[in-house]
Amino acid sequence: MFNLSELENDALVEIFNIGVGQAASSMSAIVNEPVRMSVPSISFMNRAAAGRLLGARDAEPERICGVSQRYVGAFDTDAILMFPEDKSLEIVRLMVGESVPLKELTEMEQEAMCEIGNIILNSCVGTLANIFQRELRGSLPQYHVGTSDEILTANGSPSDAVVLMLHIDFVLEKHQIHGYVAFILDISALHDLKEQINLYIARAMGQA
Amino acid sequence: MDTEAKRAAHRLSLLESVLCAVNVGAIVLDGERRIVVWNSWLERHSNLPWDQMLGREFFAIFPELRGQRVDAAIQQALYNNFPSLLSQTLNKAPFPLYPQPGAPESERLQQAVEVTPLAVAGAPRHCLIQITDVSIAVAREKLLREQAMVLRSQTFSDGLTGIANRRHFDVAIEKEQRRAKRGGLPLSLLMIDIDHFKAYNDHYGHQKGDQCLIQVAAALASMLKRPCDLMARYGGEEFAMILPDTDVEQAMLVGEQLRKRALELALPHERNLGELRQVTVSIGITTQSPDLPVEIDTLINAADRALYRAKRNGRNRIEFLLPG
């Protein structure tokens, strides 16, 4: 499997933490309450392993709620924010302060989930792009519900694609919710990413 | 004009017609955030004609949007080339757009907004703001929620007295506490207990005891005027009352009215040890101030202690304690 050196890994974790930090402050501004987000770790895995990571251990695969956006430019990637469906219900209702939970996200709540995904993904990718001093173009977010396998393959990524998986902690009003952001990358995008990280590290070292 | 230029002019006028026919609001801003497109849909819902809007600075027209989500989304589009989605659920109605602008007391259109970057040849990036009217969907979901609430209320009411049960109270106090915190509003909580109720039960029997609970609950619940106020059976002969956006003075006033209302019932109570041989209530009151929110447990505990103090000071009275 594709691997980063410890230094590269730390640099990327740091970059993503800056990204989700900005996303958290945008969301705090919306709900007028503290929202905290962090990325404790990242890992690379193939698409099949990524599918298993999210609730596929049980006999009945867990339903996952995903928000995806495609970014192209310095490197091309499908970025997908994923939460178990019940957690996504929890997040949206905590954000909205709604007191009558229905069994599934309503149409309007799905749109709110899309906005939350849009904020998180744009912040993560935007921080990457700024730090790499490169530009990416993004699409509007799309909402998906299904097994993690269905969501990871929704955009027709090749089976040998590599997934850069971010573990995300989301804290709002005493609730801590774990989720994931998956970046689906092909081999050339991976190498572009690695190259950009090394350029960033070289610049950081040069300035130090 | 040669044919190529004619075709281009034709395409342009066609595109303008389309832009004016579509059923969404479309604003295009240039790299300096000046308005370069303002379509008919917007004219219809804002009363601002396009010829007065062109070239104007966006935030000069909508100063209240500066620093808000719309501002951040425009920034994302112009500088990072990323589109943003602003859902109605999280943003309600950011733009001052109305079904019939100028009509008195009309409510804003409920809006879903998309802000997308636009590449323009030979100029810095522009962005397109699309506004969709989602009022119908919002109304439909409100209805859905109300119906779910009706169904739920059947599992949320106390079997004996018909008022809210403890489960309902637990959900409501959490909701109201968060709303108070977010909105910077006071929140009052009253704990109400029927004096010497055990003695009443022993003397008159459980059936009479149940009747007494039903009558007191109905009388006190009928005193609540606002839909957000809630009276619940907290346990045994104890009731809890949540009064959102109610400060100390108002809460004391309500507490006193409730105490008097119980007296007016004039239910005989031979074993009430006070001067009055009738059913009375003691009430503990607490209020969370807007600038000092506390934990729910702390709030309940303060009301409980105030109730205990009312009992100790002779019953048939109200007492107030600050939370914490």
Tell me what the structure shows:
Chain A is α+β, with helices and mostly antiparallel strands and 208 residues long. Chain A has a single domain (6-207), classed as Chemotaxis protein chec (3-Layer(aba) Sandwich). Chain A has helices spanning 6-31, 47-53, 85-96, 107-132, 148-153, 187-207, and strands at residues 35-38, 42-46, 64-73, 77-84, 136-138, 142-146, 162-172, 175-185. In chain A, strands 1, 2, 3, 4, 5, 6, 7 and 8 form an eight-stranded antiparallel β-sheet that branches. In chain A, helix 1 (6-31) packs across helix 4 (107-132) and helix 1 packs across helix 6 (187-207). Chain A is globular and about 55 Å long. The two termini of chain A are 32 Å apart. The mean pLDDT of chain A is 85. Chain B has two domains: 3-138, Beta-Lactamase, CATH 3.30.450; 156-320, 2-Layer Sandwich (Alpha-Beta Plaits), CATH 3.30.70. In chain B, helix 9 crosses helix 10. In chain B, 45% of the residues lie in helices and 19% in strands. Chain B is elongated, with a radius of gyration of 30 Å. In chain B, strand 1 (25-29) and strand 2 form a beta hairpin. Chain B has 324 residues and is of the alpha+beta class. In chain B, the strands form two sheets. Chain B has a five-stranded antiparallel β-sheet with strand order 2-1-5-4-3. A five-stranded mixed β-sheet of chain B has the order 7-8-6-9-10, sandwiched between helices. The interface between A and B is large, with 39 and 35 residues.
